[in-house]
Inverse folding.
């Protein structure tokens, strides 16, 4: 980029006056918009005047515990079933002692403390950084917001906070580490100001953690590094890829305006006390600058969407100038996803609609032969495209699964799970959104599960992301039941403001998650009101005796019928699936009405089957149960999912494939169909040759991979599994050693796997009720060796994505990875 600094507002105005009658800068490249032109992606082509970082940015608020900070107080945890936390001042830290639970249902220890803050507004703050150390087995440190405003209703459980916040995994090596928690992320609908900052630590056993300091960082302070740049910013739950600068500033681009050209963008600010004046001008060679927009804006809680018609400049090369000014020098201004397009222009590449049914079970879809007509719209779509009968998710729940299919990398390669609110996709990995955004696609994400969004760092490369999850059942919100309708509505709002093509959109609905009944007219389709009330009563009885888990002792204690209970749950799930399918049908109908369907690639998939959404129904409704340790990930209620590709005029309709495939194949398939470059490293393979009838596809075993980090040993523990035609094999990696308390506990012993590798005949035992490891020692040996080789490959690849210095793989490792098709 060409950058021109200034020392004062007066000199800045002189620079503007000097350039007022000049044409486009002669040394700047001319940008074109045959496909959508994302101005924030082309800062290297911009001439930037001004945008000086001010010296009076708001400073962080810091508490240093090398001396007493009496304003920090113990948070009572009795309502959560824990003994009171102990706070002790040491020479350089506040020692927080984590106390045991007084309840039988949990073995965890918890400690929490808080400080009053002076009615801060949550949107003004970026992060809370905690410096801490511990040698105890503390698992995580996290944040809550605000104490309850009202006394607890009698007889009701009531947490001692209003909103959940971010959390991070703790390193237990006895040295000081800094944990960074997002201050602009919370569970629940914020009302009013931020009044109390609450910090907590969680451990598997009583212990302590020393807090050396707590720092709360204002959002403005996060913009001190670069005078101009790009980052995702959130306003009212809407994240936008924003081009930021410090007013006063002028960003000049030399662009060739297309036919029917238009510039779409959002306006945003970080503070409301100093309005920002946004100006947009166009200057054709030899002419006067033409004012196209001038607006004062000061609403820090919302984006203002704007569109400017450039059609009268079609065919001309102009200097497009984005200017900002403010009474306070250095005030941050945000241009949300400034995109130059040719309205109505058709391009060679298709739009991409990637529709993920969160918790979508193939077994309960009529498109897959289920005996209820739950998915008539997906049935019709299957007749128009390529339908995969044996598709699997690569993990059992949303976070690892979504990260895998958005990157085509297995879960362990990206580090495994450390905590619910951490483990984002590594910065070194390009996501699906980043791949297509770099190719000029407009990108939108509409998700009802934060694990499919910002909690996984999947806002990268996204022009606009709406995380509507707090409108549903997370942390006391409304419910999941209408997520598909809400997300569809958000998508069409986005299309109205950014109507150009091509676009890529990722939906992730949660209609089928366990929040029943669904909405009318689907509520009551399979379960009457009376049956639903009885089912809820059963649930309350089971909860009082330890819960409704498949292997719970509550069934014997209550005398309730497990099969009857889960049969009703299955019917409630079916109603929700029918609603989600209906909304998919409405989405397709409107795509057709808008004239977009013929140029759209639609992919329908799921991140996992029904178990993580509500229960392993397929197993629960069996008359007899297998041992508690016999639940491999490839069991149909855990990982069998739908997968469907439709592209009118390109993918032949009515194709059905029985070969095992997985969601990790979706990214390479999309890139292949769009004729975009493949990543150097990917662990899936393109299904395009299979669907298009060309060479290049060979059957591969499907790999499932899910791991958690043992913070005490720094080992990854989990399962690595394979589906290989008829056979499924599950290998336990680094199994947990038995606890001393478990050695004499027959119930605990029942849940331990008897051998590292379990083996199933998926043709004759689809629900994985009986492991054949004793009957087929030859296959046990074969698949143990196979999965151990896979594990070595995963560990080698993981070195490429470990923060810090780049690791060089050995020739042997590279050869293994190439033989598996993981490195191109």
């Amino acid at each position: 980029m060409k950058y021109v600094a200034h020392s004062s507002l007066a000199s800045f105005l002189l620079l503007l006056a000097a350039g007022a009658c000049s044409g486009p800068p002669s040394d700047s490249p001319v940008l074109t918009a045959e496909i959508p032109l994302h101005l924030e992606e082309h800062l290297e082509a911009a001439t930037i005047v001004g945008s000086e970082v001010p010296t009076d940015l708001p400073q962080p608020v810091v508490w240093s515990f090398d001396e007493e900070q009496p304003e920090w107080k113990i948070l009572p945890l009795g309502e959560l079933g824990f003994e009171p936390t102990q706070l002790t001042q040491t020479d350089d830290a506040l020692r927080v002692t984590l106390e045991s639970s007084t309840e039988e249902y949990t073995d965890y220890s918890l400690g929490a403390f808080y400080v009053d803050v002076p009615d801060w507004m949550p949107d003004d703050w970026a992060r809370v950084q905690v410096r801490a150390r511990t040698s105890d087995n503390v698992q995580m440190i996290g944040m809550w917001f605000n104490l309850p405003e009202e006394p607890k209703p009698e007889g009701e459980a009531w947490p001692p906070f209003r909103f959940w916040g971010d959390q991070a995994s703790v390193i237990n090596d006895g040295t000081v580490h800094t944990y960074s928690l997002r201050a602009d992320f919370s569970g629940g609908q914020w009302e009013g100001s931020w009044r109390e900052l609450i910090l907590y630590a969680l451990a598997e056993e009583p212990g302590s953690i020393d807090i050396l300091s707590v720092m709360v960082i204002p959002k403005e302070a996060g913009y001190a590094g670069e005078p101009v740049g790009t980052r995702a910013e959130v306003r009212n739950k809407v994240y936008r890829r924003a081009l930021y600068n410090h007013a006063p500033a002028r960003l000049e681009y030399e662009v060739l305006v297309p036919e029917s050209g238009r510039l779409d963008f959002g306006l945003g600010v970080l503070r409301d006390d100093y309005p920002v004046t946004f100006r947009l001008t166009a200057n054709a060679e030899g002419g006067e600058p033409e004012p196209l927009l001038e607006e004062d804006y000061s609403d820090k809680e919302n984006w203002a969407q704007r569109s400017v018609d450039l059609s009268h400049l079609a065919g001309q090369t102009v200097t497009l100038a984005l200017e900002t000014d403010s009474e306070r020098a250095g005030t941050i201004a945000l241009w949300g996803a400034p995109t130059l397009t040719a309205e109505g222009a058709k391009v060679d590449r298709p739009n991409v609609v990637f529709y993920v049914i969160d918790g979508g079970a193939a077994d309960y879809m009529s498109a897959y032969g289920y005996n209820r007509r739950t998915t008539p719209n997906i049935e019709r779509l299957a007749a128009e495209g390529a339908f995969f009968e044996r598709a699997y998710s690569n993990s059992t729940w949303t976070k690892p699964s979504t990260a895998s299919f958005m990157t085509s990398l297995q879960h362990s390669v990206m580090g495994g799970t450390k905590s619910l609110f951490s483990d984002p996709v590594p910065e070194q990995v390009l996501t699906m959104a980043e791949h297509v955004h770099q190719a000029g696609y407009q990108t939108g994400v509409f998700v009802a599960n934060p694990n499919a969004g910002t909690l996984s760092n999947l806002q990268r490369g996204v022009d606009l992301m709406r995380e509507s999850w707090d409108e549903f059942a997370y942390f006391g919100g409304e419910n999941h039941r209408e997520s598909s309708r809400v997300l569809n509505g958000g998508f069409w709002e986005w299309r109205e403001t950014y109507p150009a093509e091509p676009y890529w959109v990722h939906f992730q609905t949660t209609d089928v998650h366990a929040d029943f009944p669904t909405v009318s007219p689907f509520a009551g389709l399979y379960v009457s009101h009376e049956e639903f009330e009885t089912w809820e009563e059963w649930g309350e009885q089971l909860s009082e005796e330890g819960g409704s888990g498949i292997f719970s002792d509550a069934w014997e204690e209550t005398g309730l019928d497990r099969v009857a209970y889960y049969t009703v749950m299955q019917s409630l799930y079916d109603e929700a699936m029918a609603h989600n399918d209906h909304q998919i049908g409405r989405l397709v109908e409107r795509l057709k009405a808008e004239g977009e369907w013929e140029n759209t690639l639609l992919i329908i998939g799921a991140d996992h089957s029904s178990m993580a959404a509500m229960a392993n129904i397929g197993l629960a409704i069996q008359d007899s149960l297998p041992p508690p340790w016999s639940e491999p990930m490839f069991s149909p209620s855990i990982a069998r999912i739908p997968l469907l590709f439709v592209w009118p005029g390109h993918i032949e309709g009515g194709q059905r494939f029985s070969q095992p495939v997985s969601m990790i194949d979706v990214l390479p398939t999309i890139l292949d169909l769009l004729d975009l470059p493949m990543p150097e490293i990917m662990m899936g393979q393109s299904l395009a040759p299979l669907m298009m009838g060309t060479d290049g596809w060979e059957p591969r075993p499907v790999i499932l991979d899910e791991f958690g980090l043992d913070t005490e040993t720094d080992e990854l523990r989990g399962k690595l599994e394979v589906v290989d035609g008829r056979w499924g094999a599950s290998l336990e990696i680094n199994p947990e050693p038995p606890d001393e308390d478990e050695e004499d506990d027959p119930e605990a012993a029942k849940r331990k796997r008897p051998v590292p590798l379990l083996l199933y005949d998926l043709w004759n035992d689809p629900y994985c009720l009986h492991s054949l490891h004793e009957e087929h020692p030859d296959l046990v040996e074969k698949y143990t060796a196979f999965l151990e080789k896979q594990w070595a490959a995963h560990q080698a690849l993981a070195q490429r994505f470990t923060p810090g210095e780049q690791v060089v793989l050995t020739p042997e490792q590279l050869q293994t990875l190439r033989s598996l098709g993981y490195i191109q």
